[in-house]
Amino acid sequence: MQRKPILFVDVDGVISLWGFDPDDRPPGAFASVDGIIHFLSAAAGEHLLELREDFDLVWCTGWKDRANDHLPHLLGLPEPLPWLDFGTPAERTAHWKLDAVRTYAQDRPAAWIDDAFDESCHAWAAERGVPTLLVGTEPPTGLQARHVMELRAWAGTLLTS
Fold it and tell me: 20 to 30 Å CA-CA from 146: which of 31, 52, 88, 140?
């Protein structure tokens, strides 16, 4: 049996929305996470449950292990997810998440959904010898049905190749 590809999931700007017009707020709810108020997308949990069918989900967020303290319950996920540790700022090169993503992904196909890719992320994805997909979101709207469709279609191509 072939392993599922990895999906690295950012939180802020993907699940926790920001920058929207307060008078035209997207569907969602406010939640306090470690004393900080976040606006969580109403659809994010359902989208992640759907993506679990095709991917091994991994938190790729500055929340690190704290994502599991709050998000599975708030989003209706059945269990905690693995998470990346990005090290200290002195250890980071290029995009602050890239070294941890590279190490975790190794030679597995991987997708990454985030609101803040830079040139180093795109270079890494282009240079990998295995299928890699970067999916960008907009912080006011985050993870949308169209992103889920794009990710699932991409994962489907891996089964036929």
Answer: 31
Helices (H), 4-161: 44-51, 66-75, 98-105, 119-127, 145-160
Q: What are phi and psi of 51, to 5 degrees?
A: -70, -25
- What's the pLDDT at 82? 97
Q: Which structural domains are found in the chain, ordered by start?
A: 6-160 (3.40.50)
66-75 vs 44-51: helix axis angle to the nearest 10? 100
Q: Inform me whether the pLDDT recorded for 161 exceeds 90.
A: no
Q: Please name the residues in contact with 22: beta carbons below 8 A apart, sequence gap of 6 or more.
A: none
Answer yes or no: are the C-beta atoms of 71 and 32 closer than 8 Å.
no
Predicted confidence band at 1 (pLDDT cuts at 50, 70, 90)?
Answer: very low
Could you give phi then psi for residue 125, rounded to 5 degrees?
-60, -40
